[in-house]
Amino acid sequence: MIRRQLGMWARGSSSVRRTRLIVSHLASCPDCDTIATMLAEANDELHATARSAGTVTGLGARS
Ligand SMILES: [Zn+2]
To answer: What residues flank ion ligand 1 with Cβ within 5 A?
Structure first.
């Protein structure tokens, strides 16, 4: 079941070999492709939140 692995994949914690399998599956499976896109976007938002939190506390905000 590829779907269970999409979360790991979206966090970038899948092996190269598994990532290849997932990517080739996504190319042929619109359902999983939609889920993968959603997970990737949710992940980006987490990162963006972490970045802006760092800015608020002054971390990484030095110019
Ligand atoms: Zn699928």
So the answer is: 29, 32
